[in-house]
Write a structure and sequence with these properties.
69% of the residues lie in helices and 8% in strands. The protein is α+β, with helices and mostly antiparallel strands. The longest helix has 44 residues.
Length: 302
């Protein structure tokens, strides 16, 4: 089949149902934009979870004069030999990647930054805050090993795992991933149904032309191809428009506003955005081609 004949037929079909074509392009644009945003949110949730999971630390709080009478603090405030022994024991554990000692002065300086502008800052003095060790693990899930090894050591008040504090946050991220994936699937379904409906309507309106082609011996491919290409072209235009809007959103929010104002995570970059756009475009065009081809099996019978 000659290329220019197919091109003319596709162009004619798109012009003949111009309002339907415009409606299809706009709907596909909105649907694929929401798919891109859903996939981007899912990628961002994964990135945020990985960022926080990789930065989880175990906090080993040492006894001071005001510590409650826990098993490790029965002897009072931690002594220098106990402090050295605790640090040596932590560093000896194969699960431990790094150990950082936080003095009372450093804890006080951190509190000044954290509680800046708060009335609580006036009641905090360097002697009130306990010393601690911040322990980074190769695998944050191995917290139990550190706890078993050091929790009962003289001079140790508490051993806390930040994973427990972050569990609600991780649950929110997990539901964000599920929700964004659900939105993407639903919007792909909506776009596919509209494409199928548009192509079936176009085929129904041109059934007489199809019958004439059958009578003169036209092949199934020559009859079906223009309809399939109409769906592909409309989807491609809508997808490119969606990609343009998505690139604008990526630039304004994920690259400019959010990194400056919300510094709780790394943010997805252009490589991720381009991957999302490319994947969505290919998936959208493929769904349009397959859905239109299958829907034509009934409507192009003579």
């Amino acid at each position: 089949m000659r290329a220019h004949v197919v091109t003319n037929e596709v162009t004619s079909g798109l012009r003949r149902n111009l309002l339907m074509t415009v409606a299809l392009v706009i709907t596909v644009m909105v649907s694929l934009l929401l798919v891109m945003l859903g996939l981007a949110v899912r990628q961002q949730a994964q990135l945020t979870k990985a960022f926080w999971f990789n930065n989880i630390e175990v906090s080993v709080t040492l006894c001071n004069a005001d510590s409650p009478q826990s098993a490790g603090c029965a002897g009072g405030a931690v002594t220098q030999p106990q402090r050295d022994e605790i640090q040596a024991q932590l560093r000896a554990l194969p699960e431990v990647q790094a150990v950082h000692y936080v003095s009372q002065q450093e804890a006080y300086e951190r509190a000044q930054i954290f509680f800046k502008g708060s009335a609580i800052l006036s009641s905090i003095t360097p002697g009130v805050l306990p010393e601690s060790y911040e322990v980074k693990l190769h695998d944050p899930r191995k917290f139990g090993v550190v706890q078993d090894a050091i929790a009962q050591h003289p001079g140790v008040d508490t051993v806390e795992d930040e994973t427990d504090k972050l569990k609600p946050f991780f649950n929110v991220l997990r539901w964000m991933q599920i929700g964004s994936l659900a939105v993407a699937i639903v919007m792909l379904g909506v776009a596919t149904l509209l494409i199928v409906n548009s192509i079936q309507l176009s085929a129904f309106n041109r059934r007489r032309e199809t019958g004439i082609k059958r009578l003169v011996g036209a092949s199934n491919l020559s009859i079906q191809l223009p309809f399939v290409l109409e769906a592909v072209v409309a989807t491609l235009i809508g997808g490119l428009l969606a990609a343009g809007w998505f690139a604008l959103i990526e630039k304004i929010f994920f690259r400019d506003k959010l990194p400056r104002n919300v510094r709780i995570s790394e943010w997805i970059g252009w490589s991720t955005a381009l991957g999302v756009m490319g994947f969505t475009l290919v998936l959208g065009v493929a769904l349009a081609a397959v859905a239109s081809f299958l829907s034509l099996q009934r409507y192009l019978r003579v």
